[in-house]
Write a structure and sequence with these properties.
The protein is α/β, with parallel strands linked by helices and about 140 residues long. It has a single domain, classed as 2-Layer Sandwich (Transcription Regulator spoIIAA), CATH 3.30.750. The chain is built from five helices and six strands. The chain has a six-stranded mixed sheet with strand order 1-2-3-4-5-6. The radius of gyration is 15 Å and the shape is globular.
Length: about 140
């Protein structure tokens, strides 16, 4: 019997701001128009830390999908302003990501934001370079 039913784990929901959930081995982080406060960021990072710790304990590999499709140019400037906070959290887990992160995707529908992010990433050249895509249909994830 073929069972296509997928169980979704809701890890964190901050109404109109942030939604973190996982399906199979894909961690989804969706940011909305509202700006995140430092408390929101702390909740997000704590939630992600717990998820990463659980994956590490079980030796699970996974994908991360950041969905910024609802962000406007105005709200994305706050994200860029706080990028060092996100970078520090990412760097905290870099050893784990090297072995367990299959791929990192960032969904950005706005052309200007997507091209700006691609330019920044080409200059910065991060160790784990994300795939910048326009929508969820552009994901190329092998779930086997």
């Amino acid at each position: 019997m073929n069972n296509d039913f997928q169980i979704e784990d809701v890890l964190l929901l901050i109404e109109n701001k942030l939604y973190i959930h996982s399906i199979d081995n894909i961690l989804h982080i969706e940011l909305f128009e509202e700006l995140l406060t430092s408390e929101d960021n702390n909740l997000m990072f704590n939630t992600l830390d717990i998820y990463y710790d659980n994956c590490q304990k079980k030796n699970l590999s996974f994908y991360i999908v950041y969905n910024f499709s609802q962000l406007s140019i105005a709200s994305s400037s706050n994200l860029i302003y706080n990028s060092s906070i996100y970078n520090n959290h990412f760097d905290k887990h870099i050893k784990f990501f090297r072995t367990n992160l299959k791929s990192l995707y960032i969904i950005v529908q706005n052309y200007t934001i997507r091209e700006s992010l691609n330019t920044i990433l080409n200059l910065y050249n991060p160790e784990i370079k994300p795939h910048i895509i326009e929508n969820i249909n552009d994901l190329s994830i092998n779930l086997s």
